[in-house]
What we know:
Elements: E1 2-5, E2 10-13, E3 21-26, H1 37-55, E4 59-64, H2 71-79, H3 84-101, E5 109-110, H4 118-130, E6 134-137, E7 140-143, H5 159-164, E8 180-185, E9 200-202, H6 204-216, E10 220-226, H7 230-245, E11 250-256, E12 259-261, E13 264-265, H8 276-280, H9 285-293, E14 301-303, H10 305-331, H11 339-357, H12 362-379, H13 386-403, H14 416-430, H15 434-446, E15 449-454, E16 457-462
Parallel strand pairs: 3-4, 3-10, 4-5, 10-11, 12-14
Antiparallel strand pairs: 1-2, 6-7, 7-8, 8-9, 12-13, 15-16
Helix pairs in contact: 2-3, 4-6, 6-7, 9-10, 10-12, 10-13, 11-12, 11-13, 12-13, 14-15
Amino acid sequence: MRLYNTLTRKKEEFIPIEEDKVKMYACGPTVYNFIHVGNARPAVIFDTLRRYFKYKGYEVKYVVNFTDIDDKLINRAIEEDTTVKELAERYIKEYLIDTTGLNILEEETLHPKATEYIGGIIKFIKGLEEKDYAYNIDGNVYFDTTKLKDYGKLSKKNLEDLISGARVQVNDEKRTTSDFALWKKEKPGEPSWGSPWGKGRPGWHIECSVMAKELLGDTIDIHAGGEDLQFPHHENEIAQSESLTGKPFARYWLHNGMINIDNQKMSKSLNNFFTVRDVSKEYDLEILRFFIVSGHYRKPINYSRETIHQADASLQRLYNCKRNLKFYMENNPPGEVDEAVKLKMIEFRNQFENAMDDDINTADAVTALFEIAKFVNSTFDEFTSRESAGFVNEEYLELAEVLGILYKEVQDEISEEAMALINKRIEARKNKDFKLADELRDALLEIGVEVEDTRDGVKWKKI
């Protein structure tokens, strides 16, 4: 398996620190609002990578943090006349509703909160101070970037560029404009904790270094997030972690591309800002997940009504294959699994794995599923053994599970009234009473059931 390492700007063979074990850390949300579709992309992509590692037999320890103390939380809590803690708890619950809708494996994810690690954060900063990488100015503690020769190695920027860069906030108190806050002095009305430097709260970057170290160790296998986090967040994580431990922080750095909205960058000012909750009111979130895995994770993708409708139509084609396989399994004659079917499924599985092994190429992995659907639709009929159908179904759904799709049941349960109309329509067609059959089709549509006449018999689905 080869992964594109942002640190080296090339694909590298994945070799875990411990055999058959993977330690992954993905930067999670600042929990002051609902997550947006841009947040959904890393959530889905790195959940898919975690699923693929499991598929390959790895034991995966996966961490996604919650930033529950931050300027955004403080300002939002003031606006809503609530506490930061109450605000954070509310949006953590909302986050889990959305990610469960996206079929993220939440029960297998560790979700540490920054406020749960204040003691570890203080100890970490104290260690940096003792090694002369941090300095205290009137209760504010900063990391001294000039002490590192390789600061900027992830974003490939030199220190002079970073000092003069527009993204660095100018602060006359800091020794150098590229220095960043590890501990912020208490301000009136803000949550704060006692520390050797006085009451205050942690800076943004320090929390991830501390939680990764305490939960996964000094060096982790994979650190992941959106490409917008490369600088300053991930750059600063590397600086502070490696300065304290003297060891590489992460062996592989993975970053996903951004989601554009109607070919424009998502922005509240452009009024094209969509939360996952907004999307869920109009579309099943499985469609959003499928849309995300249908593109390569490092490339930008364009979200629009048209692309979501296309994703929906494509997903339904894959569900039709699942529906057809179920029909064959329930209605076809028994028999052995055809050897040609076995060989064909080995070919499709290899196609899928080769795609995923090539830097998580989910787009080509999806193509492998469509090839299976095409094979079923073109070669299976009423004479195919139910065992052959069952074999393909098991293989097909195992691969789909890696992508986190096709988990819903098919051939929906329908009412006795609808079933009676379907049976009456079958009799009408047998008697060549096509006028009555058409009337019954219309009656079924009115109660939300669509029927399809195939060479293998009548199939139906709720609409």
